[in-house]
Amino acid sequence: METTFTPVENSLYLTLAGRALDSRAPRPVLADPTAEGVAKALGYDLAGAPLVKSQVFDIAVRSRILDDVVRDFVARHPDAVVLELGAGLDGRILRVEPPSTVDWYDVDLPAVTAARRRLLPARPNAHPVAADLAEPGWLDELPDGRPVVAVADGVVAFLPQDVLVALLNGITGRFPSGEIAFNSYTKFHVWAIRHYRGTGSIAGVVANPGFDDPHDPERWDPKLRLAGEVFATRAPEVALQPLAMRWFTRLCGRSAALSRRGTCVLRFRF
Fold it and tell me: What b/e readout covers 63-93, taking b as 16+ CB neighbours within 10 angstroms?
């Protein structure tokens, strides 16, 4: 099935490939067989994906961390609203399996949303939202008055700083309470994306300058409070890596500064 995306939309292939390749591993981190099925339906050649094993691990770990954020939140708030910001072709709702009392909104650009409708199983409480995160107004269509958990997997890099700040302000202004979690991009990450061969396909569409202080979002939105930094270097799944990579990752995990140069998920409450 041929699907044509813009360069920004094409970025979804990297995370899709990471989840799919992880599912093929003898000891997968995420174990998401849906990802491989979607890749196959798109005709995407996983053998040609420009990802090394460490990148596959990072993509799978950050997805697992964000899954856990949502699971934990909806367990405490069974009436929650879930926002998947820049949903891509991720079937997170299929992994989390929230109760029917939760309303789940997968937000992405129209072409991606149309592909989601074709390629991913429907759920009664899942609502696709065809919208540009940079455009105002789409939040106004969502139910307010309920707690919200918003997650963004790999999306922040493609949002200009003013758009990211406006998005955070919009969520905290629309809902009475909740959590926002996303994998952060430091200035080093942005430099690496633009210079590393494996991420060359997205280098031209990276729009965020990155930020090094995890407390910066608290300054952009006074309602936010940093509730945690979750480092991939300290994830229990590190034990699944080959010996040399496991040793190196655990060594880096002793330092928060070094760990921030790798995959890090920030979790905020308001």
Answer: bbbbbebbeebbeebeebbbbbbbbbbbbbb
Amino acid at 56: V
The two beta strands, 103-108 and 225-231, are unpaired
| Identity of residue 240 | L
The rounded distance, in Å, linking the Cα atoms of 165 and 217 is: 8
Write out the E strands in the chain. 81-85, 103-108, 126-130, 148-152, 178-183, 225-231, 264-269
Nearest residue to 106 via CA among 133, 128, 125, 90: 128
Which residue type sits at 97? E
**Average pLDDT per block of 10 residues along the chain, 270 residues long:** 78 94 94 94 89 91 97 98 97 97 97 96 95 94 95 96 97 98 94 77 87 97 97 91 89 91 95
Please give the structure tokens belonging to residue 160.
Answer: 């200009």
Would you list the DSSP string of 30-97?
Answer: S--HHHHHHHHHHT--GGG----HHHHHHHHHHHHHHHHHHHHHHHH-TT-EEEEET-TT--HHHHH-
Residues making up the chain, counted from first to last: 270
